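Ticket #4471: structure export looks truncated?
Reporter: QA, pipeline team
Priority: medium

Steps to reproduce: submit the single chain below to the structure queue and open the exported record.
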Amino acid sequence: VKVGNKTHLQSAIFSLAMAAFSQLTFTSSIAQRHAAIARGSGNSDLSRSVPATKVATAAGARRQRVTMTATTPGQRSESGNNDLNKVLPLQTELTYLTGSQAKANEGKKLSSDVREDARNGWLSSDLKARKSLKERKMRQRKTKVVCTIGPASSSREALFRLCDAGMNVARLNMSHGDHQSHKQVVDLIKEYNATGRRPDKIALLLDTKGPEVRSGDLATTVYLETGDAFTFTIDPSHKSESDQKMTTVNYDGFVNDVHVDDVLLVDGGLLSMQIVEITETEVRCVVLEGGEFKSRRHLNVQGRTANLPSLTQKDWEDLQFGVDQGVDFFAMSFVHDAKVINEVKAWLRSQGAEISVLPKIESANSVMNLDDILQASDGAMVARGDLGVELP
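Actual output as written to the record:
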């Protein structure tokens, strides 16, 4: 997302939110309908709402096409009868396959041709819709689907299902997992791209961990209530596992960056504490908003950005991994100014790598330096969670 200047940031965030909401709502509706097709249910909502031009027969069911425009629930109309598709926000056509309406006395099984389209589900209709839009010279939606791949979705079967369902970008979150687990995902995405099941390539996005301030490990989840005391320490010798009222912080400069009366937000604001005392190694707080406190939680000081380096040693190692694996995008976490973008791009040139660099706008400093950051980058991501914490 390219934003012209700082005054446009709020508008850009609103547009992103609306686009994401529209895409999720729209995709959910499509998924439900194609699930009905795949099950071959003659009583599906699809069968009731989409009239077939002909009835499929057992001798060789033909693919029946009914071109629809995306409308509000309960409102559908065949294209050619109106011009709704020219004014709808999504301006998207859907081609539904209605072979599942075969009459029982003419055969319950669909032809292999129709069944293949039904198995493809979203994919076949999506490609036909895009082709139809191109022929009509109509503007197409620019919203893409980015999926973060984790343990639950990293198997071959799960990844291929995501790709078939319309995923455009696979996101590798370097805050979790290791290079071996991420390489397995990269290899599977490349394998899928090589099959030719889709004309467009599934892209790979590597999201750096960035210079985050995080709490240490706890033996168990701690339940904090309003008024409780809690302490953070930079002393590495402290054993957090044996203390339910104190934990370590991974940033030695933490005691210098904060001040008495600052509000410390834990895990994006799920918990909040007020700083009441600071020593050479400890930051002592009183809980304002209680809740569960778990290990390795992200810490923010409301309205202030930590004086951390923009790139850590781990980030550089992860970027090298991305170059070696041939990813398409780098998402740079906690970018404060354009200097880090220029530094990464210069390094990429020295590596002979063509990878787009996308800074994540998620701190007060990144907003202040937004113009310069956007001029240096290939796009941008607005990280609402951390940005909302620093700029409530």
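Status: closed, not a bug. The export was complete when the record was re-opened. Leaving a note from the reviewer for reference: Confidence is low (pLDDT under 50) at residues 20-115, 121-125.
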